[in-house]
Amino acid sequence: MKKLIVTACMLAMVMSTLTGCVKKTQESPSEPAAGTVQGDESAAQGEASTTQLPANETQSAAVNEKELNIYTALEDEQVTDYLTEFKEQNPDVTIHITRDSTGIITSKLLAEKDNPIADVVWGLSATSLLVLKQNDMLEGYAPEGVDRILPEFKDAAEVPDWVGIDAWETAWLVNKEVLKSKGIDTVPASYEDLLDPKYEGLIAMPNPASSGTGLLTVNGILQLMGEEKGWEYLDALDKNVAVYTHSGSQPAKEAASGEYGIGISFGYRCINSASEVGPEIAEAVFPSEGSGWDVEANALIKKADQKEISKTFLDWAISDNIMQKYAENYPIVAIGVGSGVPEGYAQNPVDQLIKPMDFENLAKNRETTLDEWTLRYDAKSAQKE
Amino acid sequence: MKNLKRKLENISIENFLKGLILYSVLVFLIIFLVFPLGTLFVRAFQRPDGSPAGFEQFARYFTNPAMLQSVGNTFFVAIVSTLVSVGLAFLFSYSLSRKNIRFKNFFRYIGMVPIFAPTMLLGIALIYLFGNKGILTAAGLGIPLYGKVGIIIAESIYCFPVATTILMVAFSGADNRLYEAADSMGTSAWRKMITITIPNVKYGLISALFVSFTYSFTDFGAPSVVGGNYNVLATDVYKQVVGQQNFNMGAVVGIVLLFPAVLSFAVDRITSSKQNASISSKAVPYVIKPHKTSDRLAAGFCWLITAAMLLFFGVALFASLIKLWPYNLTLTLKNYDLTRVAAGAGTAAFRNSVLIALAAAAMGTVACFLTAYMTERIQKFPKTRKLTYFLGITPLAIPGTVVGLSYILFFNASWFGIPFTSYALQSPFYALYGTIWIVIFADIIHFFSVPFTTAVTSLKRLDKEFETVSESMGVPFYHTLGRVIIPLCLPAIIEMFVYYFVNALVTVSAVVFIYSARVPLAAVAIVNLEGAGDTAPAAAMCMLLLFINLGVRLIYEAIRRHQEKKGQRP
């Protein structure tokens, strides 16, 4: 009997924490998302038994202007560098950066659709932002100085849903030393060259499901050659590919360190990694047929409690100083390219881009393209073993 | 009513306290172990929108050739790694416990080193040794590293320390009378091995095999570095959950990951219960007899293992210290600059990881010890005690990836649907999500079983009379606990703390799903660095974690020595 009473006491304690047994409403419980932020930390560290209000109510309760959640797919070292100025200007704002490859940031944002954590998206591919737009997740906002942004770098609407900052494009890094050790003394200059059987097992390429660079490369090829020919090309390329990597920078970095002969990546990364090891070893190559490309863009996430600080951030993110910073890394910025050819580029980088890239359509087909790709090469690469 | 009142009055404070503690630990285990796992099972049978799916997702999983391939791959690498690591560990621990060789302590410590570092470090060292530009590749010892070969080597090293530890214990319990009898009959050394030694350590061997199998079946770190396109289940879960945010499919893979672990767990329980009875109380401890040839062979083998370990970790250290492999071999500390990694949050990530390891060690040790105390030293509530004991040893069977996955599923839902009804409960635990606490609790649960078993073993050794005597003298149990039991168990308690700290600091598989941008973690930063191709900073961060763990271990050894000396004094 004693035992029973103790049990009852404990049960009562447990039940008191599970307050509010209610009939489930129409809206489904919000989808969980890996590695994301929920609630206010100080509140969260309190009693575990504190009853939480449904998410949308807590949100409208208080807008915390001192905290800004930024989702970004910019390169790690760029984020640190770029943010210095914003932090100086807004010293009392705590910034939480969620950084990962394009595909992962995109699926995270989609998963959090009903209960978004991100306040703003910074430097995510236009293709991904258009997917978010098609899911009605973006709030139009015209940041200060948006007029300077060239029309092909922003949403067409009067109050644009997304505003671009720069563009990045397919390139590859060739490790001539590695190729030489395999008895190859040529440097592949075009997509067609990459199909040469002598490069078998020497190519690393980013997986488009996780990497934005991978997706824009695949999209570029499909755009350039058409659906049918494009997939035929990718089938042939797959025979030469040794590994599909998680991120877009990994192939260039690993080719630079001699793990692979050719790393399909993007312009900035190839030029940077090639210059690190020196021109006698590595060379950055832009495909002669033209490069697939995408715009890195910013957007405001639609949510009940818009923060002023989010808008301040979006204004800053296309201001003159930061545009100059972007330009140091990516020569094609959204306010146009300066005169002259930037270091490491053979020609004006804008001429290198495949035109036109129909981003609206690419966004619509994103899932189909990725499913097709995964079906063809994820299964195939596993079976090769 | 009157009856109830009288009953209530009859409950002594002491019994109430006992019940309170026992039920607290039980509730703790239910909330942080049973509920999350339950959620995992529920979600595997649901569509993403929450509607019941039956076996639909399992069917989709098992008809997808790529996924099936992963199941085969995972079994293959796990079986081979298990055989290799247990084979080496068998020879190693046999040499250390049955052969007349010098530097035994040194060899034992060297053999333990791999557990102090994240498994990614093993992968990174392999790339520097056997990669296309690897040191040994240049020496003509190239192997097809990326894929199964790399994974198998890394997992074999990873499982070696735990297999060695288990086998050392098994070898320590021998009955020398059997060997004496065999010698007097002129039995050959080989025959003694087959008929006495191996049957003697049979259960230890089985347990080592299964533990190694579980480890290599579920590890995420090494395949993520050297797996190439060779997909295994642990990386599949990551792709499904982090890459595509497909939690329900992730739950399906999680359950597949659970099967062999549960099997090995069952085998482990059966064998360990038999093992207790295998050595009689009249047994005479084994006496090592010198034997020149085999002693030399054993010493040679130990040196070989030592050389391999030193090579591995030496290369990893080297990798973290040079500028640009393989073209610029200038030494630099640049890779150790934490402010340059994880979008500037490297230092915070590192600090968080140490804090979390400390907190998990402190809280986990208390939780494990109390749970063990309640199940071992209290006579009341037999059924509840049995249940608590069972829950206490269950985490052993649950891979880190599954712990992490079930934690996001459970803690990130602001509402739970009650299965088969249209009702939902508000979750009071939602508040933990995205905080440092969820990581701490995940670590406490993930590593619960080993310290719990340590505590149970050390409590079992104490005389049952302590409680009986103190009860008859009217001393409350908590005084006995505080003044007698805890001081006597102190060595075990410190050991539990160190185990928790070391493991919580380097674990990747559990935390990779539940960390948040607000609480960056070192182990996750390493995965991201490696994913972006920044191998050298990743190696540097691994080395930092390794150094901290070695430091903690050295402090532990110093304390232990000090205590042993104290104990020897009259």
UniProtKB/TrEMBL annotation, chain A:
GO terms for cellular component: outer membrane-bounded periplasmic space. GO terms for biological process: thiamine transport. Fe cation binds at Y268. InterPro entries: ABC_2-AEP-bd, Ferric-bd. Residues 1-19 form the signal peptide. Residues 25-60 are annotated as: Disordered. Keywords: Iron, Metal-binding, Signal. This is 2-aminoethylphosphonate ABC transporter substrate-binding protein. GO terms for molecular function: metal ion binding; thiamine binding; thiamine pyrophosphate binding. NCBIfam families: phnS2. It comes from Diplocloster agilis. CDD domains: PBP2_Fbp_like_1. Residues 47-60 have a biased composition (Polar residues). The keyword Signal applies. Gene3D superfamilies: Periplasmic binding protein-like II (3.40.190.10). PROSITE patterns: PROKAR_LIPOPROTEIN.
Automatic annotation (TrEMBL), chain B:
Keywords: Membrane, Transmembrane, Transmembrane helix, Transport. It comes from the Bacteria. Residues 71-268, 350-556 form the ABC transmembrane type-1 domain. Pfam families: BPD_transp_1 (PF00528). It is found in: Cell membrane; Membrane. It is a multi-pass membrane protein. GO terms for cellular component: plasma membrane. The chain crosses the membrane at residues 20-42, 75-94, 106-130, 150-172, 193-215, 247-267, 297-322, 354-375, 387-410, 430-452, 497-516, 536-556. Its main location: membrane. GO terms for biological process: transmembrane transport. Belongs to the binding-protein-dependent transport system permease family. This is 2-aminoethylphosphonate ABC transporter permease subunit. It comes from Diplocloster agilis.
